[in-house]
Amino acid sequence: MKDNCCIFLCFTVETSDISAREATQIPLMNEPTYYITTPIYYVNAEPHIGSSYTTIMCDILRRYHDLLGFKTYFLTGTDEHGEKIFREAQAKGRDVRQMVDEISQTFRSLWPQLNITNNDFIRTTEKRHIEVVQQILQKTMDSGDIYEAEYGGNYCVACERYYSDRDVEANPGVCPIHESKLEFIKEKNYFFRLRKYQDWLREKIESEPGFLQPEQYRREVLSLLREPLEDLCISRPAERLHWGIPLPFDKNYVTYVWYDALVNYVSALEYPDGEKFKTFWPNATHMIAKDILRQHAVYWPCMLKAAGIDCFKRLRVHGYWTAGGKKISKSLGNALDPRDEVARYGLDVFRYFLAREMSFGADGDYNAQALVARNNAELANDLGNLLSRVTAMIEKYCGGVMPDVQNPTEEDTALLTQLQGLADALPDHLENTTVHVFLEKVMQVVAATNRYVTSQAPWTLMKAGNIERVSTVLAVTSQALCGFGQLLYPVMPEKMAALLAAYGQGKPERLTLAPVTPGTKIEPAKALFPQLELAEKPEAASAPVADAKVEEKPKPPVAPQKPEIEFDDFAKVDLRVATVLEAERVPKTDKLLRLTVDIGFETRQIVAGIAEHYTPEQMIGRQIVVVANLAPRKLRGLTSQGMLLASRSGGNVFVLDPNAQSLPGSEVS
Ligand code: MSP
Question: In b/e form, how buried is each residue of 588-606, taking b as 16+ CB within 10 angstroms?
């Protein structure tokens, strides 16, 4: 506790002359640079949830490293050569170059729509890439690690690789990934001496546990390396396939697409002499899914070793997004378009859901109900509502100006210590790619902050005239909220920028957890995360998982319309915006909450039948719409001076939110 007092002290002192990092004890990681890459995606199909997940996770890692002061570089791109792409163009009767240009462009233009901040987008058909591939091939040939030989084997066009009998033991003759029939192909080709590097690689993976994670994939690769590896066929005869990079030492062949594709990670950095290569390659992190583990964990390190290039620093491997247990993929016909999901649920909610829901390394089923539930519970009720409540109280109790901390108590310090704990834990979560665990921890501190507000009850302190405590509680809570704004910014950049803007702060450049300067003008925040309902099936979308579940849901009966009324009848109803100041359960009933609301011209008591759907904590600080001129009536002995508006949908009740920060008493018409 003692150590943490200094976190708190900087709350009350002028911080302008202390660097934010010093003031708040943010740990510095040792490495000054960070290079993160996605796989380069095939251009035979458009982007879907799977490729979006990897790319969003890389973006999140990149942004977190930015916040921690790293110099970062983020690469993605498209993989455009090879038999699979060529056959796809033939099947569609299209010119292959036109097809790859077009689909590559769909990836390039999708990423900004998902707020992806890649520095570069590499295409393997670009000159800068082709030259580096040829250079590395020549170097490897010259050192004797490439040789010519004849080989026959079972081949999968979709994987663009041969499978040995051992690989397909469980289901002979069938590709274990694509479940398609393998073709027997025999031809003269060039081979890379993969086997020569097997022992070196095994020792590396054994002695550097951090190189390949999560652990289950490290073990999988080590077990693969216990059996002798076969050398890798790295060419295709040009007479069979011309769509590839010509081997520099034999124009009758093109380069095997995987050898070509892996080189993108260094060609984009302008290997060998580029500044970017020197700066970023020593701290390269590759992120992939488990489908391309062997290529990244075995082929690529050995290719680099043979070419005399240092190995990348980390390989991080995630599982599959599935639909009904099957991998989501275009070829299995169950792909979800990320643009549809973003249109339905909002970009930041989508990004948060992907990062929070999937345990990195394991498979996760994509499920719209889970997305809606997480939004409603964690984002709307816990975080968004906390922001609305606290900024509304600052408006009401402190004249809309950031109050100061005076005489902090143990409870105040304890909350800020939890916040600091999150920042302290962040580097390890980044190293281990356990962002999903980190987000869970952040949400636990959000929940703790809600409990803190409820237990400190600034509305009661205000009634008792204890302005000093009201100020302190609201200032501490605001520091926590702005901390969440920074800690969640990499995941939800737009929403967290809006949160921070309510406190007069810009987008965070560094993680500081610094308190908001007392005296700052605070804007009452509108609902940051509206409650969501499951989207109805859109006309042309292909979203089998979400939609199937939506369809299963029985449609609630729609109440018939009431008899028509004249405008004058409606005009008699006085609808007003109100802010909930207090809320508590009415004893001996499950249904009723007693609310004290500020209706602009007075404070009122309203008894509302919403206790089965909202906790008192969720209501405090919330803006609602009330019928102000309804004759009072008694419910369970309590007088209700008005009625709040809510919609009923199926078994749910949603309190209407004016969804804009109107002043209490504003008329609704
Ligand atoms: N072109 C190769 C990669 C070459 S990298 C030098 C390739 N392309 S791909 O288009 O098939 O992309 C595979 C990658 O897309 C996976 O490793 C993963 O990053 C992402 N995903 C595709 N489908 C996925 C899921 N269903 N779930 C999670 N990620 C998935 O392989």
Answer: eeeebbbbbbbbbeeebeb
